[in-house]
Amino acid sequence: MREVPVEQAVGLVLAHDMTQIVPGKFKGAAFRKGHVIQEEDISRLYDMGKRHIYVMEIDAGELHEDEAAVRMATALAGQGVLLAPVHEGKVVLKAATSGMLWVDKRRVTEMNEIDEISIATKKPYSHVDAGESVAGLRPIPLVIAEEKIAHVERMAREAVGGMAMIDVLPYKPQCIHLVTTGSEIASGRVQDQSGPILREKMARYGLGIAQQVFVGDDTSDIEQAIRSAHAAGATLICVTGGMSVDPDDRTPLAIRNSASQVVSYGTPVLPGSMLMLAYLRETVIFGLPGAVIFDSKTSFDLLLPRVLAGIAITKKDIAQLGVGGWLNA
């Protein structure tokens, strides 16, 4: 620390908090440790009775926490992310649009292994709304070695496929079709519950349902409904009902017969373990178990943002859901 006259302190960094007391009105920090003295601060310092202050000198090769945080945030943020103003050495990243949160988990983890670096994000692949905070980052000390920040910047430039470290991917236009199975629903004996619930769920993402058809339990009828939806331009087909192991539940077989690729029948997620995911060329097919209708969050909710953002899902992606896949309260 070094003592300097107030009028000579512009551009220098406060070494400690400075408290101001206004009797009956205010008592608190007028200036925080690490604050960079501005020309307009001089008058207030005089009002506080200050003629000299202690300042922190930043040596060559070091950065103040504010500059370090801004540099890190700029390096990590993609086009779908906005930077909030730096505050006390921290920058918050916010979603510029609604969509799926993308995080390069491996590289962000490696960045956090650098001493005195802190990068915290929300869970990747989750839905976020425009304006929602998605991450916060900061250096730990008030002054940090510039090389550590430069290391973070170099790692960010190594992104594969042009993807940013942290981004929000907007959802792609969708044409969603529902195929509702079950003779009890097709005959009118039981009222359909899947349609209203899935419409409400899709509305949260700003999407609607283009068409819903009702078929019985015949495998060939379910297959034909899937192929007809695909021919009509569906980008996402949700098949509800008939996903358990009962002899009348023929949906998994119908999806297998219709699909060009089956990614998985079953997920390590509860509720929603009986979910099926397949592709008919570029069209995504979900076989949705009853849990999707009765539970607020299932495997379907974990996978849907990826599908809407146009990210292809692999068996490994589904296998990784098992750690943290117990969604029951």
Q: Would you kindly provide a written description of the structure presented here, covering whatever features stand out?
A:
The protein has 329 residues and is an alpha+beta fold. The protein has three domains: 2-56, Molybdopterin biosynthesis moea protein, domain 2, CATH 3.90.105; 62-169, Aldehyde Oxidoreductase, domain 3, CATH 3.90.1170; 176-322, Molybdenum Cofactor Biosythetic Enzyme, Chain A (3-Layer(aba) Sandwich). 28% of the residues lie in helices and 27% in strands. The protein has eleven helices and 20 strands. The chain has helices spanning 41-47, 65-76, 105-112, 146-157, 183-186, 194-203, 219-231, 251-258, 291-294, 299-308, 315-319, and strands at residues 2-5, 13-14, 18-22, 26-31, 52-56, 62-64, 81-83, 91-95, 99-103, 117-121, 127-128, 133-139, 143-145, 166-169, 176-180, 211-214, 236-240, 261-265, 276-280, 283-288. The strands form six sheets. The chain has a six-stranded mixed sheet, with helices on one face. A four-stranded antiparallel sheet has the order 7-8-12-10. Strands 1-5-2 form a three-stranded antiparallel sheet, with no helix packed on it. A hairpin with a 2-residue loop joins strand 19 and strand 20. Helix 2 packs parallel to helix 4. The chain is elongated. The two termini are 53 Å apart. Residues 177-310 form the MoaB/Mog domain. One of its GO terms (molecular function) is metal ion binding. Its cofactor is Mg(2+). It catalyses: adenylyl-molybdopterin + molybdate = Mo-molybdopterin + AMP + H(+). Belongs to the MoeA family.
